[in-house]
TrEMBL record, chain A:
CDD domains: CBD_TIP60_like, NAT_SF. It catalyses: L-lysyl-[histone] + acetyl-CoA = N(6)-acetyl-L-lysyl-[histone] + CoA + H(+); (S)-lactoyl-CoA + L-lysyl-[protein] = N(6)-[(S)-lactoyl]-L-lysyl-[protein] + CoA + H(+); 2-hydroxyisobutanoyl-CoA + L-lysyl-[protein] = N(6)-(2-hydroxyisobutanoyl)-L-lysyl-[protein] + CoA + H(+); (2E)-butenoyl-CoA + L-lysyl-[protein] = N(6)-(2E)-butenoyl-L-lysyl-[protein] + CoA + H(+). One of its GO terms (cellular component) is histone acetyltransferase complex. This is Histone acetyltransferase KAT5. Residues 69-106, 122-220 are annotated as: Disordered. Its EC number is 2.3.1.48.
Length: 513, 805
């Protein structure tokens, strides 16, 4: 049993969490940061194998200190932190597998996790090698993160031989600093920068800027501890209070506020309700500051040019970044168009979601970032956004695909949309003159504007493609058909292409965006 | 899934996929696993995240239940949607316009202060309001201006006063408040702003810096690349266009030549018609000319497009002749011209026997068929007879291959000419043309029969051949025998001569070996020397005979006697040009030297020749003419003014000069197209001269000599000049003919039947066009010649053009 004071960044331990079913779980989590607010320690935890969006600040009461695993290096530097020799052995941290084997400490989800092809490191562990694999597996993630953090040049993929190496090589202090300070360093950097971190950061050398096309980053080499942690606690937007999921580069002085107030229409951020009030006296927008290109019922779409309306575009991006992990705001918004979906009521056109789109995409992207604001999620708006994006592609006469990487929710949404769209076509095919209906993948792609690869992956995902009598066939099984029909019954929100008033522009002829 | 017994084909996106539904769906066990055939598409997610627990759970749930269950949804942080003061905050209502909202750009920039007052400011405002009235907006504007005026450094009060158009007290109050608040502010500004990037790059990794400018380097580089590529493409395009232009020009030239040929053909047909030559008898009669015709035919074929081949054909002819005698020659020729063998075969087969004549005629006729392709061309030019020969003469691996960038010279017409001269004498010609009794100046001796040719680098090579006469010849002292003609060749000539001139000496020479010496003395001597004059003369004769070949028939028919010859000659004389004379003279001059002495002594005709000389040539009074002009001819020539091919004895250099002079004198009166060919002449003459200097021929230069001289000279002349030579030859012909007119040429004058025949043929060929009065003939002759010349020139040009391209 460790003391609360001993808990440092990099430690892993089960943390109490309430799941959707309102059940308490104790998934394994890693301490990413520790802060002291008026004498009360708060721990920023990342639940292993959970999405970052669930990371949160917790009090020590939710930590299962009995199962704490310290970063391995730390074991050798107990004295530095005044850690008692009571933890002489390097942290015998429980790996999910071993924990599972050993008992019920770990919540069910983790077990489920194991079922679904976890990374190898984790699978290897049940093999039962006590020390090495354990330590390596347990330390791998923190270490790999620390590697990223400290020497960002080193790619995360680089296998860092288990921490023994640095631990043994470095003098205790150094090791401690590397391991212990490394993780605190994250915090320190965000708060007051430690010298150690500074030097490390500066050693990055030439900063490599992300690619200039697209709006997503798959390269996480710059993903330091600051961006790993949510920095905005709460955002008030119209009637809604949003809990951001990820870091967003709002002005740093605003990150300490309990609530960030946004104007619902122009998305300007203010530090207080009073500010917002004042702002609203000056802001007469009641809809996104762009041209309405689609309206059906209460749903409207507005097109905003990232170059012509910078402040709104930037504000939108800042807000969106709170919910999009891979979105980068590194570069300006000039090369993008923003399509904001709104829902109208008597107060105005309220933003529901949006997607951005490169004016010129070299890779057939028809969507860069896409987001349904959390209050509107799981109500079909996401699919509506996706449908609209393909509707634009149809008008342009192109096929398109969303920019990668997809998020988990993005993948699910797109798969769902693709599945429903393709199934809709397949089931709508009438057999002509008694012959079996048939269709090519290219035809599906043309009809739907879904890129060919996505069509294939969807057919595969649905397991529709089979090889029969020397040729490929599409098989629509009963439950596929039933499932689709049920899903379509629920899908009430549809884009009506007749309501779209959109003329694609040839941006290549405009010189600059 | 059944085990994969074979590899399924790759999934083809363009191939229709039949859709099976419900009941008629085949048992999936019959279906083959396609895992390998259809590559698994990436999900598009980050690897790490893809394995996240909730996602996997959701995916599996979806796959199992075909729809999401509430509990299987990916959890997200909660959001509240119950801001109770919302209605108070967002006052008023907004009515949805009927039209789509279209925003005006300028609407976006309403000048409102970015600064939003907060509650702290409000207290200040309330306090200030006690003393003076200040509205929130006014306050915000003030703060806004202060903020925007100061970056890192705060504006001073003085500056603030300038900045703010307000009461001093108010300014002071607000300013002080602002400074205080600013100091307490953690941010860089009271107006929260997104961190800007710094130009020094220090903020490149600052996570709070956003919306950096894009440097657009990449695009420019891309463009530059494109420019380069497109530039190269344009260059290529231009190159190809210019090539197309060249080709078109060449086609144009070819078509022009075709047209000319057509006209000529027409003319021939007309002539034949007028002569009543329906059965082609006249054509057949002109056996002699056929070889010549062939030569001419080649130009015709040229029009068809393959100039090279035509040239090859020409060159082949001489080779045929030499074939039997010299293997070396043949070999050499083969190397040079891969297609020779065919032509050679043709000619050889044809020439010896009169039977071949018809064949030749056919080929002549065929000439006028225009063939577009090279392949077609040859078979027609070469009669079928040639085929077996070809087989005998396979080029094999040694076949000549035209080399790119290499310029091949035009064929040597001089050689060809020889072969063409007299069809009857074909056999003799072989020897004659090829080999002459040759003497060397250094060492001074007679080497017997030899042939000259130019080797690489312009070296003169003597191809010697053994004859029965060798032992006799060895005894010959070159000096003693100034004019010593090769046995066979001289014999031929002599025969001609004898016929024409009715001189018994020639006959003697040819028949008896022992009489060689005497023959030599009697001007039967064959010169090996490259006498241009002689060469050209002979050439000219040949040429003339050839060219008019077709017309010859006509002429022949009409004119069987000397009279004809005279007329024709007269006509010819009229056609003489400067160049013709020059070449003529050059050739003759050398011969003259040697001949004169002997001729004068022996021949009766000396006087006549002398007489003619003064007339024709101012400078050279030598008697050389006597030889060329037999007694009979001399008599005939009495009336003739023509300068004739009378060469003076003067030495080469002199001869040239004199020759020129003479020529000028003579030509001018008659001169028609002097200038045209002067250049050609000059070219041809110069090598000839040099050759002459190198080798001295012993032989006489009678008319007979002309031919051998030609033979010898031709090889000597540089290939470069070949084309020129041909022209010169033509000219020479004219000139040669002209003397004939006057004096009755050696040939023509000859009473002997064969000689007469030959002469007539030659004459007819030359002047074929006109049997009528000399003047008329001459004009026609010119006409005839000119197109031919043009054709030749054209050929030369075209060949060059071809190779250049």
């Amino acid at each position: 049993m460790a003391e609360v004071g001993e808990i440092i960044e990099g430690c892993r331990l089960p943390v109490l969490r309430r799941n959707q079913d309102n059940e308490d779980e104790w998934p394994l989590a890693e301490i990413l940061s520790v802060k002291d607010i008026s004498g009360r320690k708060l721990f920023y935890v990342h639940y292993i194998d959970f999405n970052k969006r669930l990371d949160e600040w917790v009090t020590h009461e939710r930590l299962d200190l009995k199962k704490i695993q310290f970063p391995k290096k730390e074991a050798k530097t107990p004295t530095k932190n005044g850690l008692p020799g009571s933890r002489p052995g390097s942290p015998e941290r429980e790996v999910p597998a071993s924990a599972q084997a050993s008992g019920k400490t770990l919540p069910i989800p983790v077990q489920i996790t194991l079922r679904f092809n976890l990374p190898k490191e984790r699978e290897a562990i049940p093999g039962g090698e006590p020390d090495q694999p354990l330590s390596s597996s347990s330390c791998l993630q923190p270490n790999h993160r620390s590697t990223k953090r400290k020497v960002e040049v080193v790619s995360p993929a680089t296998p860092v031989p288990s921490e023994t190496a640095p631990a043994s090589v470095f003098p205790q202090n150094g090791a401690a600093r590397r391991a212990v300070a490394a993780q605190p360093g994250r915090k320190r950097k965000s708060n007051c920068l430690g010298t150690d971190e500074d030097s490390q950061d500066s050693s990055d050398g030439i900063p490599s800027a992300p690619r200039m096309t697209g709006s997503l980053v798959s390269d996480r080499s710059h993903d330091d501890i600051v961006t790993r942690m949510k920095n905005i606690e709460c955002i008030e937007l119209g009637r809604h209070r949003l809990k951001p999921w990820y870091f967003s580069p709002y002005p740093q002085e605003l990150t300490t506020l309990p609530v960030l107030y946004l104007c619902e229409f122009c998305l300007k951020y203010g530090r207080s309700l009073k500010c917002l009030q004042r702002h609203l006296t000056k802001c007469d927008l009641r809809h996104p500051p762009g041209n309405e290109i689609y309206r059906k019922g209460t749903i409207s779409f507005f097109e905003i040019d990232g170059r012509k309306n910078k402040s709104y575009s930037q504000n939108l991006c800042l807000l969106a970044k709170c919910f999009l992990d891979h979105k980068t705001l590194y570069y300006g918004t000039d090369p993008f168009l923003f399509y904001v979906m709104t829902e109208y009521d008597c107060k105005g056109f309220h933003i529901v979601g949006y997607f951005s789109k490169e004016k010129e995409s070299t890779e057939d992207y028809n969507v860069a970032c896409i987001l349904t604001l959390p209050p509107y999620q799981r109500r079909g708006y996401g699919k509506l956004l996706i449908e609209f994006s393909y509707e634009l592609s149809k008008v342009e006469g192109k096929t398109g695909t969303p920019e990668k990487p997809l998020s988990d929710l993005g993948l699910l949404s797109y798969r769902s949309y693709w599945s429903q769209t393709i199934l809709e076509i397949l089931m709508g095919l009438k057999s002509e003159s008694g012959e079996r209906p048939q269709i090519t993948i290219n035809e599906i792609s043309e009809i739907t504007s879904i890129k060919k690869e996505d069509v294939i992956s969807t057919l595969q995902y649905l397991n529709l493609i089979n090889y029969y009598k020397g040729q490929y066939i599409l098989t629509l099984s009963e439950d596929i058909v039933d499932g689709h029909e049920r899903a379509m019954l629920k899908r009430l929100l549809r884009i009506d292409s007749k309501c779209l008033h959109f003329t694609p522009k040839d941006w290549s002829k405009r010189g600059k965006w | 899934m059944s085990k994969l017994s074979f590899r399924a084909r790759a999934l083809d996106a363009a191939k229709p996929l039949p859709i099976y539904r419900g009941k008629d769906m085949p048992d999936l066990n019959d279906c083959v696993s396609i895992n390998r055939a259809v590559p698994q598409m990436p999900t598009g997610m980050e690897k790490e995240e893809e394995s996240e627990h909730h996602l996997q759970r959701a995916i599996s749930a979806q796959q199992v239940f075909r729809e999401k269950k509430e509990s299987m949804v990916i959890p997200v942080p909660e959001a509240e949607s119950n801001v109770n003061y919302y209605n108070r905050l967002y006052k008023g209502e907004f009515k949805q316009p009927k039209q789509f909202i279209h925003i005006q750009p300028f609407n976006l920039d309403n000048e409102q202060p970015d600064y939003d007052m907060d509650s702290e400011d409000e207290t200040l405002l309330n306090r200030l309001n006690r003393k003076m009235e200040i509205k929130p907006l006014q306050f915000e504007i003030m703060i806004d201006r202060l903020e925007k005026a100061s970056s890192n450094q705060l504006v001073t009060l003085q500056e603030a006063k300038l900045l703010l158009n307000e009461d001093d007290y108010l300014i002071k109050a607000v300013y002080d408040y602002w400074v205080r608040k600013r100091k307490n502010c953690r941010g860089p500004s009271l107006i929260p702003q997104i961190k800007q990037e710094k130009r020094d790059g220090s903020t490149n990794n600052d996570p709070y810096v956003a919306f950096r400018r894009r440097t657009e380097k990449m695009q420019t580089r891309k463009n530059r690349k494109n420019d380069e590529a497109s530039y190269e493409k344009m260059l290529k395009l231009r190159r190809e266009f210019s090539r197309a232009i060249t080709i078109l020009e060449m086609i144009k030239r070819r078509e022009k030549t075709k047209r000319e040929l057509l006209h000529l053909t027409l003319e021939v047909v007309e002539k034949r018609y007028h002569l009543g030559d329906y059965g082609g008898e006249i054509l057949n009669e002109v056996k002699i000319s056929r070889s010549e015709k062939e030569l001419y035919a080649t130009p015709a074929t040229l029009h068809n497009g393959n100039h090279h081949k035509v040239q090859e054909c020409k060159t082949k002819h001489p080779h045929h002749l030499s074939l039997k005698e010299e293997a070396s020659d043949v070999v050499r020729q083969k190397k040079k011209y891969p297609k020779k063998p065919k032509a050679e075969a043709l000619i050889t087969s044809q020439q010896p026997t009169p039977e071949t004549l018809p064949v030749i005629n056919k080929s002549d006729i065929k000439q006028y068929d225009f063939h577009s392709s090279d392949e077609d061309e040859f078979p027609q030019v070469l009669s079928p007879v040639s085929e077996p020969e070809e087989e005998n003469d396979p080029d094999g691996p040694c076949a000549f291959r035209r080399r790119a960038g290499c310029q091949y010279y035009a064929p040597r017409l001089d050689q060809a000419n020889h072969s063409c001269e007299n069809s009857e004498l074909a056999d003799l010609d072989k020897l004659r043309y090829r080999h002459c009794l040759t003497t060397l100046t250094v060492p001074r001796r007679c080497i017997g029969f030899a042939r000259r040719r130019i080797g690489r680098g312009g070296r003169v090579i003597m191809d010697r051949i053994s004859t029965e006469h060798d032992p006799v010849l060895k005894q010959i002292d070159p000096e003693m025998l100034n004019s010593f003609s090769s046995s066979s060749q001289t014999i031929d000539f002599s025969s001609n001569f004898s016929r024409t001139n009715a001189s018994s000496k020639h006959c003697e020479n040819r028949l008896s070996l022992s009489e060689i010496l005497s023959n030599i003395r009697s001007c039967r001597l064959q010169c090996f020397q490259p006498r241009l004059l002689n060469l050209q003369d002979s050439d000219s004769e040949e040429c003339t005979s050839r060219k008019p070949g077709q017309t010859v028939n006509n002429k022949r028919v009409s004119a069987a006697s000397v009279a004809l010859l005279n007329t024709s000659k007269n006509g010819i004389s009229g056609g003489i040009t400067e160049e013709q004379f020059q070449t003529h003279q050059q050739q003759l001059v050398q011969m003259q030297r040697q001949q004169l002495a002997q001729l004068q002594q022996k021949q009766q005709s000396q006087h006549s020749s002398q007489q003619t000389h003064p007339k024709a040539q101012g400078s050279s009074t030598s008697d050389c003419m006597s030889k060329t002009l037999d007694s009979a001819s001399a008599h005939f020539a009495a009336s003739a003014v023509v300068s004739a091919p009378v060469p003076s004895r003067s030495e080469v250099a002199k001869e040239q000069n004199t020759g020129h002079n003479n020529i000028n004198g003579v030509v001018q009166p008659s001169g028609t197209s002097k200038t045209l060919y002067s250049t050609n002449m000059a070219l041809s003459s110069s090598p000839g001269i040099s050759a002459v200097q190198l080798v001295r021929t012993v032989g006489h230069t009678t008319t007979n000599h002309l031919i051998p001289a030609l033979c010898t000279s031709s090889p000597q002349t540089l290939p470069m000049n070949n084309s020129c030579l041909t022209n010169a030859v033509h000219l020479n012909n004219v000139s040669v003919v002209s003397p004939v007119n006057v004096h009755i040429n050696t040939r023509t004058s000859a009473p002997s039947p064969t000689a007469l025949k030959l002469a007539t043929v030659a004459a007819s060929m030359d002047r074929v066009p006109k049997v009528t009065p000399s003047s008329a003939i001459s004009s026609i002759a010119r006409e005839n010649h000119e197109p031919e010349r043009l054709g030749l020139n054209g050929i030369a040009e075209t060949t060059v053009a071809m190779e250049v391209t």
